Amino acid sequence: MSLPPGERIEAELASEGVPPPDIVIEPDADRLAGAAASAFVARVAAAQAVHGVASVVLTGGGVGTAMLERVADLAEEPEREVVDWTAVEIWWGDERFVPADSDDRNELGARRALLDRVGVPEERVHAMPAADGEFATAEEAAHWYAAELAELGGDDEVPRFDVLLLGMGPEGHVASIFPDSPAAQDDRPVVAVHDCPKPPPTRISLGFSAINSAEEIWLLVAGEGKAEAVARGVRGAPGTELPAGAVHGRRATRWLLDAAAASRLPEA
Ligand SMILES: O=C1O[C@H](COP(=O)(O)O)[C@@H](O)[C@H](O)[C@H]1O
């Protein structure tokens, strides 16, 4: 018996023991950023209601940064604000090992888009080290970040992540784990990455073990150029070939797409 395409994806994933992801499709990148921002605010507020302090992992990238701007816009509407920004731990999924004032830093993008606007206390902002800081190599910086995570992790290697945001490249990279990269087979929570095909070449990234410890993982993806990778990633392609295929949140994995990025998915 042949199944409809949407059910076929679910059946394929179920046969591998992978819970099927949620897929949300918005008409364009702008509305995607807005919808993701509203959902993010609700998720952070819900985590604060349960835990007091929420814990989130940010991404760089076009939609990821646009979403943070929209979150800050929401925070400036006092009647709609539901998040206590003094009670959010901020982490990053990856960072470029370049000087702190470089526009290539994901940290700088997130500070400009959100953190500087809502006033998260500095002690809750856990940026990955920059190349002009105290660490000479990306390896030393990755080691330090792993210790930082472990310090808040209690008995675990990493703390609870309520929601972890990821962008995705057209070749399926997430954070700074690229196809065929040693990072895709490294089980450490934080890894140094060299020779990235997308500049800058030297980076620090959470590994799959830390990424997949998150309660919820949200992949924010826009554009026709990523449609093929989305179609493969949703089906759970092997992480060494297409890293996005290997990310699974403990409670949920959510693909937030614009219509162009969703254009190669079978109609459910
Ligand atoms: O290099 C990176 O790229 C991805 C995706 O960026 P995008 O602009 O194509 O959306 C990003 O998620 C990641 O954090 C970043 O370091």
From TrEMBL:
Pathway terms, separated by semicolons: Carbohydrate degradation; pentose phosphate pathway; D-ribulose 5-phosphate from D-glucose 6-phosphate (oxidative stage): step 2/3
Signal peptide limits: none
GO molecular function: 6-phosphogluconolactonase activity
UniProt-annotated stretches for the region Disordered: 1-22
A Pfam short name: Glucosamine_iso
Keyword Transit peptide in record: no
SUPFAM superfamilies, per database record: NagB/RpiA/CoA transferase-like
Xref: NCBIfam families: pgl
Family recorded in the similarity comment: Belongs to the glucosamine/galactosamine-6-phosphate isomerase family. 6-phosphogluconolactonase subfamily.
PANTHER family to which the protein is assigned, alphabetical: 6-PHOSPHOGLUCONOLACTONASE
Function: Hydrolysis of 6-phosphogluconolactone to 6-phosphogluconate.
Name of the molecule in the record: 6-phosphogluconolactonase
Species of origin: Petropleomorpha daqingensis
